[in-house]
Design a protein that fits this description.
Helix 8 crosses helix 9. The chain has one domain: TIM Barrel, CATH 3.20.20.210. It is globular and about 60 Å long. Strands 6-7-8-9 form a 4-stranded parallel β-sheet. A 3-stranded parallel β-sheet has the order 1-4-5, sandwiched between helices. A two-stranded antiparallel sheet has the order 2-3. It is 47% helix and 10% strand. It has 15 helices and 9 strands. By secondary structure, the chain is of the alpha/beta class.
């Protein structure tokens, strides 16, 4: 890996989750923006670990030893990249179908999958009666427990059920069928939403007992470029009460509730802030609203997490990435309650060098 990432290579991490959380909830102001991330694709992690740090990659199998070695690699990666908080999500198995195609960002012949958009697993009450909803009591929480007990001193753990309530329900129905059922059979939508809500609530009850949990940080994509995916009123009726409940559980535990949600959520931002009680928002797209403009509107009330547009990260030069990091640091960092990171995630089609340039530049600001 190129020596231009000298700050990463020479950096001795000193995670301070207390400072990070304090800065995000507005209790203190840092003279640099800390870094944060939602999801980093496994191929990106693998490339950096094997090429920059010469670590052996281990794919987790059914045995505990391979799972431990895989989790050790995750811990090492998030620690060495300079994060104060390792975000981890997992979820019970929800039966469903997906669309699979070749991953054009990878030369190994791997595949990508998308949620089925037209015909889900539940299309009627008959399907509902047959559907095998998961049981949280049968879920293996070993990964959460291992991470909780093996994090380096000073690091925190951000936890989440993989896939938020709206995402899971829309995947079970398919987004197309959900839109029809909201008009034709709203009672069926309500029934499925209530069951999935209870499953996820029970899931959070389990992981919130872990003593290193520093934030609840779920993802629940409720928007697209110009609006919410379904009407704001339907989100308020069927899905936002769940977020209010989990945010309350997080606050009772003494940790913030950070929400990742893609798309244009302007119509429900007052609900998310005033009713749900989110402490921070993640996921920004320049074509919707650049993060610095979003912060002008909401940054005095919630933390602004990430903001480096994915299209920019995927197509810009390393120098342009570094310039953008410094610009966001000067504008958003100076206002406070801001952490630098991607606007969405680090997928495998973002050049690894661009991701490293973002991290390297952010670390350099921390050292100045």
């Amino acid at each position: 890996m190129s020596s231009v990432f000298r700050h990463i290579q020479n950096f001795t991490p000193k995670p301070r989750i207390d400072q990070f959380i304090g800065a995000m909830i507005g209790n203190n102001h840092l003279n640099y923006p800390p870094i944060v991330e939602f999801i980093i694709d496994e191929p990106v992690i693998k490339t950096i670990l094997t090429e920059m740090f010469q670590r052996e990659w281990v794919t987790p199998a059914g045995d505990r030893e391979s799972q431990k070695r895989y989790l050790d690699n995750l811990i090492f990666f998030w620690y060495r990249m300079g994060y104060d908080m390792l975000r981890f999500e997992s979820a019970p198995l929800y039966p469903g179908s997906s669309r699979v195609t070749v991953n054009t960002a990878d030369t190994s012949g791997s595949t990508r999958s998308w949620a089925e958009e037209s015909l889900g697993s539940i299309t009627s009450w008959e399907d509902f009666e047959k559907y095998k909803f998961p049981n949280v009591s049968e879920f293996d929480f070993f990964a959460f427990e291992y991470l909780n007990s093996h994090l380096p001193e000073g690091m925190g753990l951000a936890v989440a059920h993989g896939g938020g309530l709206f995402e899971r329900v829309s995947w079970i129905f398919s987004i197309e069928k959900l839109c029809y059922l909201l008009f034709d059979q709203p009672d069926l939508v309500e029934a499925v939403s209530e069951i999935v809500s209870e499953i996820q609530t029970n899931f959070y009850r389990q992981i919130l007992d872990l003593d290193r949990v520093s934030a609840v940080f779920p993802g629940d994509d409720m928007g697209f470029r110009s609006a919410t995916i379904i009407s704001p009123n339907d989100l308020r009726k069927y899905f936002l009460p769940f977020h209010t409940r989990i945010a309350g559980m997080a606050h009772d535990r003494g940790v913030p509730y950070f929400l990742h949600s893609c798309g244009n959520l302007r119509q429900i931002m007052p609900d998310l802030i005033d009713t749900v009680g989110i402490d921070g928002k993640h996921s920004y797209e320049d074509a919707i609203i650049p993060v610095e403009k979003f912060q002008e509107e909401y940054g005095n009330r919630i933390a602004i997490l990430g903001g480096m547009d994915i299209n920019f990260l995927a197509t810009a030069s390393q120098d342009q990435v570094r310039d953008r990091v410094r610009m966001l640091s000067e504008i958003c960092g100076s206002r406070g309650r801001f952490a630098i990171g991607s606007g969405n995630s680090i997928p495998d089609y973002v050049p690894v060098e661009n991701y490293l340039a973002m991290i390297d530049e952010a670390i350099s600001l921390k050292k100045e």
